[in-house]
Amino acid sequence: GAVVSQHPSWVICKSGTSVKIECRSLDFQATTMFWYRQFPKQSLMLMATSNEGSKATYEQGVEKDKFLINHASLTLSTLTVTSAHPEDSSFYICSARVLAGSYNEQFFGPGTRLTVL
Amino acid sequence: SQQGEEDPQALSIQEGENATMNCSYKTSINNLQWYRQNSGRGLVHLILIRSNEREKHSGRLRVTLDTSKKSSSLLITASRAADTASYFCATDAYGSARQLTFGSGTQLTVLP
After folding, report:
1. Which residue of A has its CA nearest to B90?
2. Does residue B82 have a pLDDT over 60?
3. Mean pLDDT, to the nearest integer, of A103-109?
4. Which of A11, A64, A108, B11 has the most Cβ atoms closer than 10 angstroms to its Cβ?
5. Residues in CB range of A104: below 8 A, 6 or more apart
6. In the predicted model, what is the mean pLDDT of chain B?
């Protein structure tokens, strides 16, 4: 199947700093990538939909100025958590969508564990 | 946003037994997918069932879909300790966004 990578796999930062997370589709082109956040023992919550070459669409309650998304190429989307605070500590997962006919299969990255001190 | 619920929230069984997880959703769907997540890892796609299908098999997995009840079930037969993970259903609703909406998940523990 298609492979999606994320970098870094984990990061620890001080409160107030910014952190960039990369999501790459390694062997296919993804016009759409999704960013999710997952708190411990909870499900994935969609944060935003990232379309190559256009602005991301954010879910209700997600601050677009705090979670900056850039999807500059068909294989790379980045999520920057600006001025991170301890409550931003979470597991961030990206996925890249492959549309085949009427299917909508998403391939997920391994996730990035963010800890804000 | 979460569309539906999964039950049970947690399931603990002995190796060799079958495990059944249920998923309910709220809106009309194009298809429903099941994913597996090992602790602290990303998601792995298991199986996709389209809205016009009622049952699908893949190895030890059997998925059913009842669109009239807006529910699906995932059966894992002859479970193994390596099946221990969280299992999520995800619905693909009609619409331009084609986002996946995840259920609350079932934590499966298979005891050796």
Report:
1. A44
2. yes
3. 80
4. A108
5. A97, B30, B31, B92, B98, B100
6. 91
Query: Which residues span the domain enclosing B68?
Result: 5-111
Structure tokens at B24: 């309910």
CATH number assigned to the domain comprising residue B38? 2.60.40.10
Min distance B14 CA to chain A CA atoms (Å): 22
Give pLDDT tens digits for A1-22: 688 999 999 999 999 999 999 9
**A-B C-beta contacts closer than 8 Å:** 65
**B residues 1-40 closer than 8 Å to A (CB):** 1-2, 30-31, 33, 35, 40
Residue with tokens 């100025």: A65
DSSP of B5-58, one letter per residue? EEE-SEEEEETTS-EEEEEE-SS-EEEEEEEEE-TTS-EEEEEEEETT-SEEEE
Nearest residue, CB atoms, B42 vs list A32, A43, A109: A109
Q: Which residue has the higher pLDDT, B87 or A74?
A: B87
Q: How far is CA A66 from the centre of its chain?
A: 13
**Within 10 A of B12 (CB to CB), how many other CB atoms are there?**
12
Q: Structural domain tally of chain B?
A: 1
